[in-house]
Amino acid sequence: MQYQQWQDEYKQGNYLPTIKRNRPSSSLTLLENYLKENQLNYAGPILDLGCGNGRNSFYFANKGYDVYALDFITESITKNIKDRLWADRIKIIRHTLPEKTNFKSNYFGLILDIVTTISLNESELKKMRAEIYRVLRRGGLFLTYVVSDKNSYQASLKKFPNQKFVLLPNTIKERIWNPISLLKFYDNLTPYFIRTSSRKDLVNGKLRAMEMITALFVK
Q: For domain 1-11+24-109+128-136, is the CATH number 3.40.50.150?
């Protein structure tokens, strides 16, 4: 995990727009629509891995869920908690991925990885996968939102030999995926859906076309 690089990005927010964004991730809309269409639901509590400024934690707290918001930098979400209900429903925990948590096994009904584990190396990511499986209850959901390897702007970035990372100008390693590699990696869970979506977003101050992958799994 690139701790110093992420600390710098949190302070400056020069490259990754979601550091300062307040609206929840678009992947949550895909989650809600899929569950509604298939007459499914989810239960709390909810684990928000790498919660950042809390934008996704606030979304679920407003819906009445208890949320555990994890990040190794917690100042951003703490500063953004202005609503009493948010404060009552969100438990902020300083935690460094991919270290094991203190949660009981089979505890969470929904776990979020919204562009959170992008800097973990292979062994760290496997460790995180095992921890997600441990704390997710049977029938619980795991939602992940990751960067596609088809983004054109990545052609100008430095790639690593295994082609699973690109190096951003802020020196953060960004793991890139395709649907097949994502399904293979999380083969200990059952996929509900995996979808790619395109949008335009600011990347290093420039508006660029972005392709993202959203996947929902069940234990």
A: yes
Residue-wise pLDDT for 31-67, tens only, equals 999 999 999 999 999 999 988 888 899 999 999 999 9
Q: Is 191 within 8 Å of 198 (Cβ atoms)?
A: no
Contact at 8 Å (CB) between 173 and 165?
yes
What the block records as the tokens of 211 is 């392709």
From CA 6, how far away is CA 115, in angstroms rounded? 13
What is the pTM for the complete model shown? 0.83
DSSP letter for 52, please.
T
Domain ranges within the chain, ordered by starting residue = 1-11+24-109+128-136, 144-153+173-196
Q: Is 2 exposed, middle or buried (0-12, 13-18, 19+ CB in 10 A)?
A: middle
Q: Output the six-digit token pair for 149.
A: 């390897």
Separation between Cα atoms, residue 80 and residue 102, nearest integer Å: 25
What are the tokens at 166?
């690109």
> Residue 29 CB: number of other CB atoms within 10 A?
12
165/8 Cα distance (integer angstroms): 20
Secondary structure class of 8 (helix, strand, coil): helix
User: Rounded to whole angstroms, how far apart are CA atoms 10 and 52?
Assistant: 8
